[in-house]
Write a structure and sequence with these properties.
Chain lengths: ~325, ~325
């Protein structure tokens, strides 16, 4: 299996990308194609003693600027490490693509270069997030700010396929993010989506209120990209806030106190560590595309490659395709 | 000053309501009118040794059921402790009203019984929430799921008046909750609201991303009621999740460890305690109405009464009225 990796996406490129890929080659038995400046990659590898065994380089001069308008990925950004990676994927030169670059550009590029699965209306970046009873996928987490009910149903279908095939959750529970439990709650979008999800054949458990998300009551949380992005970032922000508070509590004299709870503190840290799940799957693309977190380190890149591999092995794309054609009759377009 | 209090709202009524009101009479020098079953109130007070000095009772037989449709407050619910309290407020028999009953019913009842401030389009339940650099008001936190830009501008105006007059924050910073910092981000709602806020004369600092909310970077966070409710409940849910985790860390052998950080743990607890701020102000009503949290205890009720008193003293309603008439020219309706 060959995973294409954008060597110049994210805050810690290319060093952490290279370290993550080296480990992935060794431990996962995959081959890697890195996109980006060949000389810089080789220099960085040599300088840090990183092996490039089973790692090819596809040279590109440019890097897509995170502040650039997303649509430029298919215009002025054609020769960037991200666009070239997507093109290689579209051309069948690799099985999946990983990048820690701009989410907007990646969604735009995936849509127009790799293309969507037949019947899928929109691509949804969908991270797996930590929760008390285990992770859940949040879909859409930010791409589609205005949605129609059919789109949310597709997100639910894709999220379910992902949780089943990549995360190994049988018959994952689907919840519609809403402001109350009753089917009359929310905007027209939620009220209509509720009806469609009820007859979707998915394991739909009804509305989920935001306060129940951290409990991990369901494994697929469905919402539009605006609300999803607010939820994602608030989740991250609160996590980081409490992480800092925990550090503060265990500073000074608290350092001694921490010794009494070290096991528990480390367990909580691991549970809330976004690096464990890798990145955000761009559900709906014809080939697996993983958006790694912008601040990814080697461990996060390794896990993103592992996640890409699992997507290929579990044939998430194929499962979504068959779901969509099965559902074409039940859910009106 | 006379504060009307619904004696039968919330999970802990009437005992905790009575305790909170007894303390408010003693410490704040206010008079109270309790609405609800006279015999039950007297019995509860006698049984628990609670003084009813400076507390009048306005007898009502019924209590508004939290599961009832909000609109019933002005129909079948007319003789409930909530509706009667609102009626007394509307009739000028008291200066403010506090209830821990159904938010939906309270918004509906306030709108039709007490009425809105002239020029205000919608009433927005707006809680003050804890953050690292101090609290912020979230407006709208749940009433108006579909909003127009002018409504969000009014929420910003009302939230600013509240933070200034009740919380004592001079020139509070206003942030528009959005999925990115640039003025081109978000839905049409955010893009249009951004333009209006820029020329509003408020201390508008631009968009605020959800991950920055817990830092307390601005004191007024403006959004529609759907997004606001998701943010509010996720904030509460994450807070409760981490509260539980903290308890768990400090259980067992951790109990000893906690001794080394007791001061810090208590400081964090106090900082995140929703009971400190009282409740959610229903901004836009012609007289102050405070929605106390459903799980309020005596301390929370006491603080809700204190908050109501501050609203009266700071003339929040008057300030909003003058803001609105000043702005009528700058912000088109």
């Amino acid at each position: 299996m060959k995973i294409i990796v954008d060597a110049f996406g994210g805050d810690n490129a290319p060093l952490e990308v290279l370290k993550g890929c080296e480990r992935a080659v060794k431990e996962l038995g995959v081959k890697i194609i890195l996109t980006g400046s060949s000389s810089k990659i080789k220099e960085c590898a040599a300088h840090n003693g990183i092996s490039l065994n089973d790692i090819e380089i596809e040279h590109t001069d440019d890097v897509f600027d995170i502040h650039e308008e997303p649509k430029e990925i298919i215009k002025s950004g054609k020769n960037t490490s991200m666009a070239v990676g997507l093109q290689l994927l579209g051309d069948g030169k690799g099985d999946a693509f990983v990048s820690a670059g701009s989410t907007g550009a990646l969604v735009m590029g995936a849509t127009f270069i790799v293309k969507r699965i037949k019947g899928i209306k929109r691509i949804a970046p969908s991270p797996v997030m930590p929760a008390d009873k285990g992770g859940f996928i949040l879909t859409d987490a930010g791409a589609n700010t205005e949605c129609r009910p059919e789109m949310l149903v597709q997100f639910a279908v894709m999220g379910s396929a992902y949780m089943e095939k990549v995360m190994g959750i049988e018959n994952p529970k689907v919840g519609l993010l809403n402001i109350g439990a009753e089917d009359t709650k929310g905007r027209d979008l939620e009220i209509e989506t509720y009806k469609l999800l009820e007859k979707s054949g998915l394991n739909f458990i009804g509305n989920i209120e935001a306060r129940d998300i951290p409990k991990g009551e369901c494994q697929v949380v469905v919402t539009d990209g605006f609300t999803g992005n607010i939820a994602l970032k608030l989740y991250e922000g609160m996590g980081s806030f409490f992480g800092k508070k925990l550090k503060w509590i265990f500073s000074g004299a608290g350092k001694i106190g921490a010794l009494f709870s070290l096991g528990k503190i480390n367990k909580l840290k691991a549970q809330m560590d976004y690096r464990e799940t890798g990145g955000s799957a761009l559900l709906g693309v014809r080939k697996p595309v993983i958006k790694a977190h912008g601040s990814s380190d080697a461990k996060a890149f390794f896990n993103a490659v592992r996640q890409a591999k699992k997507c290929v092995e579990g044939d998430v794309v194929g499962v979504i395709e068959s779901y969509v054609s099965d559902m074409a009759e039940t859910v009106k377009e």
